Amino acid sequence: MAIDGLIILDPFGHPIIQSGFRSSPPAYPLLHIDAFNAALEKSARGSIDPVLFVHSLEYDASSVCCHVKHGDLRFLCPVTGDVDPLYVFAFMKTFIDILSEYLGNISSETLKENFDVVYQLLEETLDAGGHPSTTFPNALRDIVLPPSMLHKMLSVAGVAALAAPIAHGQPFSSPIPWRKMGVRYNNNEIYFDIAETLKATVNKNGAASTTAVWGRVDSNCKLSGTPDLLLNLAGVQNLNDCSFHPCVRIQRWTRDKQLSFVPPDGRFTLMEYRYTSGSVQQIVIPLQIKANVKLEESSSMALSSTDFQALRSCSSLGTIDITLVSRLTTRSLDNVVAQLYLGESATGVNMVATNNSSWSFDSKTKTLSWHIKSAPASSSFNLRGTVLSQKYLRPSRAFRVTFDINQHNFSALKVEQLKMTGELYKPFKGVRGRSVGDVEWRW
């Protein structure tokens, strides 16, 4: 009982690549593709359950289809038997990360241009029994060559052996599975990105009902040889539910709250965590919204001549007045987007935004979006206008606000010191922080 295979669908729901499915009948993957496309057509906004039940042609042999979306593509994993769905989703995420390492941007065009590489990766990462096998990118590069223009030209010419680089050793010759042997760089440097995401719900009184911060430490390692690193972090006392890359020595973290590891070569996620505030108070939301939404009948409103023609076929009208204030005192909020679902009966919007902000209305999703490219510290923005509706207007009772903050972390997590043993050079260390927010603000 394991993963039966992997299917990649294009934006139109057609299969681009699929694994062999050697132990299943030919119609087995088609059943899952049809079940997924049927569920997608029935959904109103394109959101469906991540695990779909699929009926089988045989009695008592049903299966499920686990799927994820990456860009415009859909990755499907048919599963039979008693298999934890998290096990399947973890494999799909790992395989997507491997494709990103090899191909960069994953799209229908890049997959079709590199069929041979993708199928080789499928054979190496998922064995015939449906169990994940080799999933470390550094180990895969020894047996599956990354695509390059020179390699493609020589392959077409029939001299592909000349395109193979001179290896430092046989595949899997390194005693450390996530790091190759003989890595050399002219400039030895390592970078750490502390990225955090704030998820919060704010009630209509402006008080935070729930707050949660999820973070991760991403690294880009360009160090020669086999360095052994010791990373000291400040502010780790409030980190919970920590998960680590296999290179991290768990016992050292449990005893001293220090990260001791031999890093992989290139980009990787060192650790992930959940931050909880040590005090009873919730995490402070870096912005404030004051919303005044009124729903009125159109017959009682005084309308201008420009609005009369648009309102002739409408039966109700609503007014919206939103003020957004930044609570930050030293940094700015970037890429602020406030969205409000106006209801199925909404037909048009007429708004005025201040301070170089902009707004848009999607007639398909019936969503009003307010865009603020940059909100300086302690700044204020306003959006006001009217909404036209064919029936009584029923907007959502909450705004969804997303934003970015550069050089800021909600957990105040910092890198204090980096020590290295095993090599004689002194590495350069770079650290930066960034945070994103996703807040549901009720009115």
Automatic annotation (TrEMBL):
It is found in: Endomembrane system. This is Clathrin adaptor mu subunit. GO terms for biological process: intracellular protein transport; vesicle-mediated transport. InterPro entries: Adaptor_comp_med_subunit, AP2_Mu_C_sf, AP_mu_sigma_su, Clathrin_mu, Longin-like_dom_sf, MHD. One of its GO terms (cellular component) is endomembrane system. Residues 187-443 form the MHD domain. Keywords: Membrane, Protein transport, Transport. Pfam families: Adap_comp_sub, Clat_adaptor_s. Belongs to the adaptor complexes medium subunit family. Its main location: membrane. The keyword Membrane applies.
